[in-house]
Design a protein that fits this description.
The chain is an alpha+beta fold and about 180 residues long. The protein folds into 2 domains: about 100 residues, 2-Layer Sandwich (PX Domain); about 40 residues, no CATH class. Helices cover about 30% and strands about 20% of the residues. The protein is built from 5 helices and 5 strands; from the N terminus they run βββαααααββ. The protein is globular and about 60 Å long.
């Protein structure tokens, strides 16, 4: 590498501790469903923002994944008939803003991979657990005493920390 060359950085550096601010800015009807446009800002810098489009079912899936934390969150109920009316969409937009504000109040939820993936899918892929499982499997390959059974569910707020259930077994050596 020459003196004046700078190393190529292929991975974006993201500070997990910076506060995320989410605003449900707008809603648009697309192909018989409504998508809500979320503006997300990381930290105090207003230039560090991006937009994500989410449907109600995405909010419902997030809500289901967060129920393991046993925190009462005010998600608006699903409505089957009349859900394309502008007045209903405006009411739901306000209710979804209340919901996401409540989620972001709780540090344990804010730092969970599910919330980070929901708000910042580019930097937080759900396949991180699978990648970690591969790395651990490769590291333990030479040791015949451990076998990975399965990844454990998200058990804490440390987003970059992944846990796996292992099984210790004995290797029998046959001697003739």
């Amino acid at each position: 590498m020459a003196i004046f060359e700078t190393p190529l950085q292929t991975k974006a550096v993201v500070d997990d501790t910076e506060k995320l601010i989410c605003t449900v800015e707008n809603a648009q009807n697309i192909n018989k469903h409504t998508e809500y446009i979320l503006r997300i800002q990381r930290g105090p810098c207003k230039e560090n923002k991006w937009y994500v489009s989410r449907r109600y079912r995405d909010f419902a899936a997030l809500h289901t994944s967060l129920q393991v934390a046993n925190i009462d969150l005010p998600i608006p109920p699903k409505k089957l008939i009349g859900n394309m009316q502008p007045s209903f969409i405006a009411e739901r937009q306000i209710a979804l803003q209340t919901y996401i504000n409540e989620v972001l109040k709780h540090q344990q939820l804010t730092l969970s991979l599910q919330v980070r993936n929901f708000l910042d899918p580019k930097n937080y892929a759900l396949t991180i657990s699978e990648q970690a499982l591969q790395s651990v499997s490769i590291a333990l390959r030479g040791d015949g005493h451990y076998e990975l059974k399965s990844p454990l569910t998200d058990i804490g707020w440390r987003i970059r920390k992944h846990y796996f259930l292992r099984d210790i077994y004995s290797v029998e050596v046959l001697v003739e």
